[in-house]
Amino acid sequence: MAMPAPSTAWTVEMVHALPDDGNRYEVIDGELFVTPAPSPVHQRAVRELLYLIGPYVTAHAIGDALMAPADIVYGPRKMVQPDLFVLPLVGGAPPRTWMEVGHLILVAEVLSPSTRRADRGKKRDLYQDKGVPEYWVVDLDERLVERWRPNEASPETLTERLEWRPDRLVEPLDIDLRAYFTRVHGQ
After folding, report:
1. Strands, DSSP E only, in the chain?
2. Is domain 38-185 annotated with CATH 3.40.50.720?
């Protein structure tokens, strides 16, 4: 279960010093979040998104689609590991180091029981505060995607289609959500 540490103000440096024990560690505003390895259906959901988004961003020279683990650092007390994210190109090429990453174009988090609170709360607040143009919360149980944008108080809830247009000069990516959830759930 993702749970905050009760009294320690955690830093990114402290998190990096933790043992490699199979858990995922994130820190937001000094609060430590620890999550166990995700389930197979969670990983299929991330993989299927990567299959859809990766070729699109590559074909249109928009960015580089990657998935966790990856330490995205926003300061000494803010580090997250998004399930899936798109980095902008640097000089026309994918970034070679995390230090080159100035901002994210897209973040997608797939909900699980241990991440639900952080994904819909602290992480959403962080991504909105950092101006991430789109933050998707993928709810596997409800078969929907919540699309959050900066400065929005509530999400757009999508169940049939998700259209993503990161560049107004390029055709949008159109995701059939019913087909996506069918592939993820194997039914």
Report:
1. 24-28, 31-35, 63-67, 72-75, 78-80, 84-88, 106-110, 134-139, 144-148, 156-158, 161-164, 173-176
2. no
